[in-house]
Design goal:
Blueprint lengths: L5 H13 L1 E3 L7 E12 L15 H13 L5 H4 L8 H11 L5 H10 L1 H7 L6 H7 L3 E5 L2 E4 L6 H11 L7 E3 L15 E9 L2 E12 L3 H20 L2 E15 L3 H8 L8 E4 L14 E4 L14
Parallel strand pairs: 7-8
Antiparallel strand pairs: 1-2, 2-8, 3-4, 5-6, 6-7, 9-10
Helix pairs in contact: 2-7, 2-9, 5-6
Bound molecules: 5,10-methenyl-6,7,8-trihydrofolic acid and ligand LAUPNLSC.
The ligand O=c1ccn([C@H]2C[C@H](O)[C@@H](COP(=O)(O)O)O2)c(=O)[nH]1 binds next to strand 7 and helix 9.
Length: about 300
């Protein structure tokens, strides 16, 4: 019997042995392959957590809940000790001020000093901003337009369409706001989400244009699955599948040790995600509402993140 994680390990092996070497934006270099699909069942609380290394799923869960608030400042992540987004604001701070501040000191300042956080901790209109507040413009007369106070809440609209028009082929939300890409610290990687309801079962498809298979992927599949589970609960459906599609799927050349180690391990077990509470809305979830059981992964493998 194959394990759901075999799809991941097979792709990793293929990229490491056959992928084309690319010079990438970060300067680290990758081996990459263009176009890949994986399918994961979410039925009976199944959750596609990687078992060949520990995934800190609470970090990914906190990040997903943070997206849903529409926040784009790393301050509220840091308050929860989530440090995965620090590198980009830190890089900008060092570049623009010339001050060689340590990561710890920078993070502490973001938490302690709200003015500092506002100036240096924002990632621009990334994920959350587009998901729940996609900019809308209104007629201001005399041929002028102004930005409306409230943008489009794609997630709210999605919940309504899933509930009221399940057969629709337009259950989509999108992070790729072309007009604002240049203001973002990084343009969205997990950029398009589509959903499908059939016989009371909700499935989701994620298109990820760029995937760091060694580091980001484990977070991305967990978070996407968690989102499908929340939407299913809110709309009264059973969870079906996560279909993950990658565009440029790559392994950074400095992830060799991680790759060799992970490929030497065998996946095992069937972790479960439980939602302990059903809030009144998709925006009401808290980290305490999520519990993972039967997760017995092999040891964590650390690897550097390419900035
Ligand atoms: N090169 C790169 N890879 C990514 O996966 C990535 C980016 N850049 N930039 C934007 C976000 C930030 N993400 C990140 C950043 C860091 C980790 C990371 O360091 N993960 C560690 C430990 C996580 C923890 O502390 O809980 C890991 O081993 O998974 C994961 C995802 C995902 N994204
Ligand atoms: O959720 C995420 C966010 C980012 N990544 C990875 C994919 C790439 O390695 C970098 C982004 O660099 P680009 O030059 O913008 O493609 O971050 C991820 O895997 N998952």
């Amino acid at each position: 019997m194959s394990h759901y994680e075999d799809q991941y390990l097979d792709l990793m092996r293929r990229i490491w042995t056959e992928g084309t070497v690319q010079e990438d934006r970060t300067g680290v270099g990758t081996r990459s392959l263009f176009g890949a699909t994986m399918r994961f069942s979410l039925a009976n609380n199944a959750i596609p957590l990687l078992t060949t290394k520990r995934i800190f799923w609470k970090t990914a869960a906190r990040e997903m809940l943070w997206f849903l608030t529409g926040d784009t400042n790393i301050r509220n992540l840091l308050k929860q000790k989530v440090r995965i987004w620090t590198d980009w604001p830190l890089d900008r701070y060092r570049r623009e001020t010339g001050e060689q501040i340590s990561q710890e000191d920078f993070e502490q300042r973001i938490v302690d000093d709200i003015n500092f956080a506002e100036k240096w901790g924002d990632l621009g209109p990334v994920y959350g901003a587009q998901w729940v507040n996609w900019p809308k413009y209104e007629d201001a007369g005399q041929g002028l337009y102004r930005r409306a106070q409230k943008g489009i809440n794609q997630i709210e609209l999605l919940v309504q369409s899933l509930k009221n028009n399940p057969g629709s082929r337009r259950h989509i939300f999108e992070g790729w706001n072309v007009a604002e890409l240049d203001q973002m610290a990084l343009p969205p990687c997990h950029k398009t989400y589509q959903f499908h309801v059939a016989d009371g079962v909700l499935s989701g498809l994620l298109f990820q244009r760029s995937c760091d298979l060694g580091l980001g992927f484990g977070f991305n599949v967990f978070a996407a699955s968690m989102l499908i589970r929340m939407l299913a609960d809110q709309c009264g459906y059973q969870p079906g599948e996560l279909i993950w599609q990658g565009g440029d799927v790559h392994l950074y050349l400095n992830h060799g040790e991680l790759v060799e180690e992970q490929l030497s391990r065998t996946p095992s077990g069937a972790p479960k995600l439980h939602l302990l509470r059903k809030p009144d809305s998709i925006f009401g979830y808290e980290i305490e509402d999520f519990e993972v059981l039967d997760y017995h992964p092999q040891a964590h493998i650390s690897a550097p993140v390419a900035v």
